[in-house]
Design goal:
Helix content is 26%, strand content 40%. The chain is built from four helices and seven strands; from the N terminus they run ββββαβββααα. It is globular and about 35 Å long.
Length: 129
């Protein structure tokens, strides 16, 4: 299965969200995103996920890296997109907290394993920002 994560940086801070309790990743922090739907491109998926989960219109800038992870018995490929958006979330559908965090703060969070695998790409993106 294929999934995407959107990584936004503003003023050297990274956008992250904490998932609602329940499920295998409940209570963990993540770079929001989700699974691709049938016939959907990765860019379309990250746009849809941010609109559904936060009411945000995002602009996918570029792919910054790829990773993979296993959740339960399913194996996923994960594409990380550098994205941009204005403003703040209008609502929280699957999360109960969001924050703009510096890299040291982000590294200390209880990140999902899949998103922790993207930290190297986030560091490179921060260095170029």
């Amino acid at each position: 299965m294929r999934s995407v994560a959107g990584i936004a940086i503003r003023n050297k801070k990274i956008f992250a969200a904490k998932r609602r309790e329940g499920g295998s990743m409940g209570g963990k922090w993540e770079f929001p995103g989700g699974k691709l739907e049938s016939g959907e491109s990765e860019a379309e998926a990250v746009i849809r996920e941010y609109a559904e989960e936060f009411g945000l219109n995002v602009l996918p800038v570029k792919v910054i890296g790829n990773s993979s992870f296993t959740n339960g018995l399913k194996h996923y490929s994960l594409t990380a997109y550098h994205i941009r958006f204005d403003g703040e979330p209008l609502f929280l559908l699957e999360h109960y907290e969001t924050a703009w965090l510096g890299l040291p703060e982000l590294e200390q969070l209880d990140l999902s394993d899949s998103d922790r695998s993207l930290l190297g790409f986030v560091k490179e993106l921060l260095a170029a920002d």
